[in-house]
């Protein structure tokens, strides 16, 4: 609706302008005076509008719909003409480059990013808020209280201990080393062996199992699983463990896996595996 009203206004305005122009041309002497009152831009605009009106009449006469591309092309020509008259070539090039760079930056900030724009806006807001002096004082106070509490709790467990700050000039004997280790072991005040410490140590209550993994450590504690050619025993046990886990999850003969040093590394390796799988399928920004 807006475009129709705008086109009607342009048509009426140009027609009134041309009627006034033709009327003044008919009086002879006023022709040059009136033409002098018109700028080059106005003359160019009227000429373009008359050309479009003529093309439109031809299309209507031949019952052909006027493509809207002609209207856009004329507007583009008028805009280019106005820009050339208002700015120098260097100004046009510089302005275009700056606008293009700004547009690309805005597009990348909104669309090409791993996090949602609302999350980034919230993080930006809190990051700027943390720079306020009042907020900085509150953060520093809370940090100091937390660090003091943690340091006090840690210091209680080793109260009275004199920390070693350098290597001894003379090495310790076996008896001296074991005695030193017993002193360190006495620092423990929490009985984790009952199994009430979640996520810390997975302790097995049976003493025979403790003897078994002590024996296992004595057999394979000095091996290096990275060198599978030198330690085929470690390589074989690892392959069997991986195959057992793959069978538990109904894996076929193509299922494979690897051993890790703990639960945290296992989670990281699983995330990395799924990420690489997404990359191989053409997903540039996989999500969890």
Tell me the major beta sheet. none
Structural class: mainly alpha
The portion of residues assigned to helices is 55-70%
Order of helices and strands: HHHHHHHHHHH
Distance between the termini: 46 Å
Q: Tell me what portion of residues adopts beta-strand conformation.
A: under 5%
Number of helical regions: 11
What is the molecular shape?
A: elongated
Rg over alpha carbons = 41 Å
Structure description:
The chain is mainly alpha-helical. Helix content is 68%, strand content 0%. The chain is built from eleven helices and no strands. The protein has helices at residues 2-26, 30-37, 40-61, 68-86, 89-110, 117-129, 133-157, 174-185, 207-220, 232-248, 263-280. α1 (2-26) packs antiparallel against α2 (30-37) and α3 runs antiparallel to α4. It starts with a helix and ends in an 8-residue tail after the last helix. Residues 1-14 and 24-34 have low confidence and may be disordered.
Write a brief caption for the model.
The chain has 288 residues and is mainly alpha-helical. Helix content is 68%, strand content 0%.
Keywords:
disordered N terminus; 11 helices
């Amino acid at each position: 609706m807006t475009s129709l009203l705008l086109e009607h206004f342009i048509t009426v305005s140009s027609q009134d302008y041309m009627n006034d122009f033709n009327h003044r041309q008919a009086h002879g002497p006023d022709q040059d005076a009136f033409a002098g009152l018109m700028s080059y831009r106005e003359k160019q605009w009227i000429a373009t509008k008359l050309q479009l009106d003529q093309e439109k009449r031809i299309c209507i006469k031949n019952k052909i719909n006027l493509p809207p591309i002609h209207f856009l092309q004329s507007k583009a020509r008028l805009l280019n003409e106005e820009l050339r008259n208002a700015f120098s070539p260097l100004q046009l090039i510089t302005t275009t480059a700056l606008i293009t760079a700004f547009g690309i930056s805005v597009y990348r900030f909104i669309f090409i990013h791993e996090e949602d724009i609302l999350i980034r806006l919230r993080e930006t807001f809190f990051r700027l808020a943390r720079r306020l002096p009042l907020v900085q004082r509150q953060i520093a106070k809370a940090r100091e209280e937390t660090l003091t509490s943690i340091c006090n709790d840690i210091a209680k467990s080793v109260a009275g201990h004199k920390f070693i700050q350098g290597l001894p000039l003379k090495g310790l004997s076996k008896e001296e080393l074991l005695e030193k280790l017993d002193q360190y072991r006495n620092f423990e005040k929490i009985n984790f062996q009952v199994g009430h410490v979640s996520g810390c140590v997975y302790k097995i209550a049976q003493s025979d199992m403790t003897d078994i993994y002590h024996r296992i450590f004595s057999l394979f504690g000095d091996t290096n699983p990275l060198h599978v050619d030198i330690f085929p025993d470690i390589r074989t046990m690892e392959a069997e463990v991986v195959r057992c886990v793959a069978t538990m999850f109904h894996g076929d003969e193509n299922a494979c896996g690897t051993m890790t040093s703990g639960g945290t590394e296992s989670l990281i390796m699983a995330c990395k595996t799924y990420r690489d799988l997404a990359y191989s399928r053409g997903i540039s920004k996989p999500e969890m």
